[in-house]
Amino acid sequence: MKALEYRDVSFSYEEEGGFRIEHLNFSVEEGEFVAVLGHNGSGKSTLARLANGLLTADSGEVAVFGTALGDKNLYEIRKQVGIVFQNPDSQAVASIVEDDVAFGAENVGMPREEIGKRISFALRAVGMEEYRTATIARLSGGQKQRVAIAGALALKPRILILDESTAMLDPRGRKEIVGVVKKLNEEEGITVLLITHFMDEALLASRAVVMNRGEIVMQDAPSRLFRRGEELVTYNLALPRIAEICNRLRAGGMNVSDALDVNTLAEDIAKCVS
Amino acid sequence: MRIVAEHLSYIYNAKSPFAVKALDDVSLTVEEGEFFGLIGHTGSGESTFVQHLNGLLRLPSSLKRRKKKDGATLTVGEFDLTSKKTNFRALRRKVGMVFQYPEDQLFAETVLDEVAYGYKNFAEKRPDREETERAVREAVEAVGLDYESVKDMSPFDLSGGQKRRVAIAGVIVTKPEILVLDEPAAGLDPLGKREVMELLHRLKESWCKTVVVVSHDMDEIAENCTRVAVFSEGRVEYVLPPAELFKHTEELLRLGLDIPLTAKLVLALKERGVEIDCDYTAEDFVSKVLARGGRSC
User: Fold this and answer.
1) Are the CB atoms for A7 and A30 separated by under 8 Å?
2) Which domain covers residue A107, as residue numbers?
3) Are both B146 and B121 inside the same structural domain?
4) A265: which chain B residues are within 8 Å (Cβ-Cβ)?
């Protein structure tokens, strides 16, 4: 089943000079983990905001599990599509972790007992149970983002969208978040749309999509996509470092595979040099 | 200008229940002409250290009404930062500081006003319009922007990468000899990151003699720095060139730090009985590997 479907969607911002999305057709299957890549201003975030009605398409429609998004079902659909944004410091609405996680659930009028269960579930899923009564201001960036993800999870969304949620984190924080998202995808079957400009994060996805000026210009399995280095560069993207090294080795005559993980590459090199 | 720190310590919220020892007996020398890297897990003291370099954080002995010396010394070129007589205004002209996400601090209506702000504030006597414009033009061009096309634009209408360049221009406009940057490439897309690092190399050649960067990106450190100081819990654990530092793989991982991709590959190859001795830049790694692979396969 299609979890998310953009049917002939057009959209433009009011300001001049920006890009517009024209007749976009794109869909994500239930349980998929899709990475969306693109340089700043390519339309990645617009794609995310169209998915739960933060932005409304000028024409065409966006459907979530087959239901087209409209004024009447907006709130129902938002329960199914959780979005986590970029800045760990601007998403918290409460000062204590559990209050923050409960906020969305309270807003949809969930019974109190149920909220308590959801908080436990959500904090466990992101590995933050011990911090249930902690002060958010004293958490690290990665922990704050995990709380933000928990806030989205408390509503049991079937789709989770991360809009550059790791951009402001240090490497450890990034690893935490990507690990949590991968786990949610595999164990809870949540459909994931990971918007990022860290190319190495895209390697975890089952499909990578490249946007440029409001258009989807490339899509493929990450390892295959990153063999098309020159094409990526024309969209102002750089290759993940491991793909760059693979390509340089190939250019030097060493035929390594395109699995793009450290151990496989080391294995390939070891075969060639011994 | 050399930076010489000896026995430097710093405690946030001293004498309160929230006291945190951010620097613990740090001794460190940065030579003129270096592209010096500071790395550490978030909260290890590297940002606290760099904030001492232009007197944003002060040594206790340099503050009025404090007499006690704690044995800590810090000199930046001819400036003795332990002294109460230090001319901090002159120091700040010589040591430019670019914070994390500097574009968040933009405020002026035009790029010209934005970059001119620091210049006017740090000038010894108020510069005239012509002189200011000349200095701004030079700084804006030095960060790789076209002065004529951006000078009258609002900085807020620029792209993320351009905003960051304008913010950097606003700092280098005083012609500092040392440029200190906290995570200069954070939050940019990969191409933007690369461009910022190239810009810093250009600036080091033509504009300011020394560049000091705080970074969490080990690949960036491996590719760019002459030497690296590793901070952990307020102490300096290593000061080494990247080619030496990343041989200490296990210790770095133990400190909760990442290692560059090249170091991971060297390690994985070692486990498979292939020793590669490289300086951990991608270029050197590839050429050393290719040099070993006598036959094509």
Assistant:
1) no
2) 2-239
3) yes
4) 265, 268
B133 CA: distance to closest CA in chain A (Å): 29
Residue that the structure tokens 């958010």 belong to: A136
Structural domain range at position B92: 3-259
| B276 shares its domain with B185 | no
Determine the distance in angstroms separating the CA of B265 from the nearest CA of chain A, rounded to an integer.
Answer: 6
Instruction: Select from A254, A255, A260, A268 the residue whose CB has the most chain B CBs within 10 Å, as the one to mutate to test that interface.
Output: A254
Give the pLDDT confidence of A138-169 residue by residue, as tens digits: 888 888 989 999 999 898 899 999 998 888 77
Which among A167, A241, A266 has CB closest to B272?
A266
Nearest by CB to residue B268, choosing from A40, A241, A263, is A263
- Is A80 within 8 Å of A152 (Cβ atoms)? no
* CB neighbours of residue A52 within 10 Å: 22
Report the residue of chain A nearest B260, measured CA to CA: A241
**CATH number of domain containing A83:** 3.40.50.300
ipTM: 0.81
Same-domain status, B92 and B134: yes
pTM (predicted TM-score): 0.83
Q: Total structural domains in chain A?
A: 1
Q: State CA A211 to chain mean position distance.
A: 14
Query: Tokens representing A257?
Result: 């595979």
